[in-house]
Specification:
Layout (H helix, E strand, L loop, with lengths): L3 H19 L18 H13 L5 H11 L10 H10 L1 H13 L8 E12 L2 H6 L7 E5 L4 E13 L4 E8 L4 H11 L1 H5 L4 E4 L7 H9 L2 E4 L15 H18 L10 H24 L14
Parallel strand pairs: 1-5, 5-6
Antiparallel strand pairs: 1-3, 2-3, 3-4
Helix pairs in contact: 1-2, 2-11, 5-11
Length: 304
């Protein structure tokens, strides 16, 4: 019995495979002489996206499920250690596919972007923050979103109001959100060049004369709520509904794609698990867009 997940997996595999044939330098490095992998890179990334969409946070459990239920799609699967190693080496390929699929969706040309960040927990104790391989990057402190202390990172997103990721970054939990946004814009100047006179919606912490002047120099218009003591700013009646949209996008990552149960224990492990979830949401939006579905960000057809 075919499902929407099968169709998405097939479409995604074909797209990645075609891209790797056209641009072989995107494939993870491997020796020129040696045994070719039985599981292709396109199959590997597709397998990881299916895992995120189905809500698996354990690679070992996911591989058992895939062996049992998806042999028609993946005739060969590696052991958990080999799968984990190859997936970490495929981070650059995953990032490239996020951008390629996003640009291929109609939502890419939206003229309003939402800017926000969400915590990515990596532990709950101060001892974890000291002894973990993430020590020095993940920071320990009080998280208002969770109403408790935890050790973690922060995922920064610039996305369309439909949830399509335009820019993203994973930083220490206490990194300045304004400086992170500047860094993302500096790292991808082609994105802002392709979206002149774009409107960005943020929260009241996205303030500062220098910061707003910098965005104006980039031909970006910032909309944010007024801070205490400031006069009412343009677009004030839009901020509450826009805030609900942004929180809904974050909740898709947390509630449906299990962002906070990523299971990464090293920087490379955390990065690839977060990237996989960003790709999963991007692939779902891309597929729904091509299928003319009314709700582009819906994952209901793929999570069972």
């Amino acid at each position: 019995m075919r499902t929407e997940l099968d169709t998405l997996a097939t479409a995604l595999y074909v797209r990645i495979d075609d891209q790797l044939k056209a641009s072989p330098h995107l494939a993870p490095w491997r020796p020129a002489v040696g045994i070719a992998p039985t599981l292709s890179d396109a199959e590997l990334v597709t397998l990881a996206v299916m895992s995120a969409l189905l809500g698996y946070t354990s690679e070992r459990r996911w591989l058992r499920r895939a062996n049992r239920d998806f042999p028609r799609l993946f005739p060969y699967l590696p052991q958990q250690s080999g799968y984990n190693k190859r997936l970490r080496n495929a981070s650059e390929l995953i990032k490239h596919m996020i951008r390629m699929l996003a640009q291929d969706a109609s939502l890419w040309i939206d003229d309003v972007w939402a800017v926000d960040s969400t915590p990515v927990g990596c532990g709950c104790s101060r001892e974890t923050a000291k002894r973990s391989d993430l020590a020095g990057w993940a920071e320990y402190g009080y998280c208002a979103s969770h109403s408790r202390y935890l050790c973690g990172l922060r995922l920064h997103l610039v996305c369309t109001l439909g949830g399509l990721s335009v820019l993203f970054a994973l930083t220490a939990a206490k990194a300045d959100e304004r400086e992170t946004l500047r860094g993302m814009l500096d790292a991808e100047p082609d994105v802002t060049a392709a979206h002149p006179r774009q409107t960005i919606t943020g929260d009241k912490n996205d303030y500062g004369r220098d910061f707003e002047h910098d965005l104006t120099e980039r031909h970006l218009k910032l909309l944010r709520p007024a801070r205490k003591g400031e006069p009412e700013r343009a677009g004030a009646h839009l901020f509450k509904p826009l805030r609900q949209v942004i929180e809904s996008i974050n909740q898709t990552f947390k509630g449906q794609l299990d962002l906070e149960q990523h299971g990464g224990r090293t920087p490379a492990g955390v990065i690839v698990r977060v990237l996989t979830r960003v790709l999963a949401l991007t692939a779902a939006i891309w597929f729904n867009d091509k299928a003319d579905q009314p709700v582009k960000r819906s994952l209901i057809a793929f999570d069972h």
